[in-house]
Amino acid sequence: MSSKLPAKAKKAAAKEITVKGTNIVPKWNYSKSIEDPSHIKLKPKYDLFINGKWEKTKKYFDTINPSNEEVISKVAYAEGKEVDKAVNAASKAYDNVWSKISAKERSKYIFRIARILQEKAREFSIIESMNGGKPVRESKAVDIPLSIAHFFYYAGWADKLKYAFPGQNPKPIGVVGQIIPWNFPLLMAAWKIAPALACGNTVVIKSAETTPLTLYKLAEVIEEAGVPEGVVNIISGDGATGAYLVNHPKVKKIAFTGSTEVGKIIMRSIAGTDKKLTLELGGKAANIIFEDAPIDAAIEGIINGIYFNQGHVCCAGSRLLVQESIKDIVVKKLKHRMRNLRVGDPLDKNTDIGAINSRMQLNKIKEMVDSGVAEGASMYQPECTLPARGFWFKPTFFTEVAQSNRIANEEIFGPVLSILTFRTPAEAVEKANNTFYGLSAGVWTDKGSKVFNVLSKIRAGVVWANTFNKFNPASPFGGYKESGFGREGGKQGLDAYVSL
Ligand code: ADP
């Protein structure tokens, strides 16, 4: 085998020491686990992307790396004037170009976006981790490939809308305004832009305050793909920018992912208009472990459910419901597993838990954790050293949690798990549904019948059995109750972007 290796690789292979069949990785290899960002192309300053051009504004703000608080780039802040410009560009592009070209042509552009993204996947992963704080292992395995998959998936639907809506006449809506959060920037953009374009709409999308960079890199991809000018406009700013977009009279549909609080504001502000709306809001998902569950697999599911992306996940399994008979063993195994989690540099491929996205979010997490302690729950954090600079929080769980505690009810959006117990399946269902939210849930059991029985009674838009946080562009995603309405992904994801 080694004779086929090039000389450089042979030399490296020779350095590996084999002890009783185990490859001990030589020390020099550790530094190679850090992704080198020096070759990543980022501009010191990003203008808005409007009508296929880069537009300067009066105000710029710093976007930082939350793992070291260093400024990465300056980014344009869009005020009402710029939002108006972006919406008008989208409106003109809709009237003059996008509504006139064939579905097949639209599909070609979306495919091109997907393919260019594929070529730049590594660059996008590194930027997503630098700007957002998430482990590069996750952006490489989840964020970027899933974003690409969404563009491919909806490119495929563009010329098949008549099959998606048999007997009906699906037409585009016009200009859509899209507002996204900071936890999965490129992925949330893909979830929104891909179906909107496939259905023949044009787009103005606003990035979240702290994570604009992959959206502007996406703007470069859109340029490279030759998408006609004005079809996708990308802007950045804050809540005021978002509010201008929501209230612009030429915007016919709003797609929002973010907090329940802002979702309610948006709903109120468009009441009385004929704007279409989809909202994907907060969550407080129950992850239910029955005594017959494969325990070690369930432990991995708990870890992935709550510590994936530092818990900055609206569908995170933040309420663990464990059957009382196995609580002690689950807690013991969980502690053991948590001691092996590596918290640190998001660009280190061995990192499991990266940086908290912002100081503001870190303060929110701390405040919620303090409330848990004050209300009498018992906290566990593994020993680990946190970097001196940046925003960090140790993976945490609470036992002795009462259903009335804030940590059992409110979304923490951080690496903090609340553990509650139950005795019977009926009690598990009752506790799982005892929430204002209804975005996701998980069930771990050996019995298929129990999966169907329990999951069919849980009011959540997405339910996982013996797994957690698994996504696929063909599966619809969305919530009930205060988690919002409308579905993104799958054939159902087309509904919001057509008028019938
Ligand atoms: P989070 O708590 O996760 O930051 P937010 O709901 O505050 O969630 O923000 C999600 C997105 O909504 C961001 O892009 C933000 O700028 C935007 N936003 C905040 N307030 C408003 C508003 N009043 N109208 C429209 N968009 C808003």
CATH architecture annotation name of the largest domain: 3-Layer(aba) Sandwich
What structural category characterises the helix and strand content?
Answer: alpha/beta
Main beta sheet: 7 strands, mixed
Tell me the name of the CATH homologous superfamily of the largest domain.
Answer: Aldehyde Dehydrogenase, Chain A, domain 1
How many domains in all? 2
- Share in β-strands: 15-25%
Task: State the low-pLDDT regions, or none.
Answer: 1-5, 12-30
Mean pLDDT comes to 94
Query: Compounds present?
Result: adenosine-5'-diphosphate
How far the N terminus sits from the C terminus, by CA atoms, comes to 61 Å
The Rg value, from CA coordinates, equals 23 Å
Form type: globular
Strand line-up of the largest beta sheet: 16-17-18-15-14-19-20
Q: Which class of the largest domain in CATH terms?
A: Alpha Beta
The amount of helix comes to 25-40%
How many alpha or pi helices?
16
Task: Give a count of the beta strands, DSSP E runs of length 2 or more.
Answer: 22
CATH topology of the largest domain: Aldehyde Dehydrogenase, Chain A, domain 1
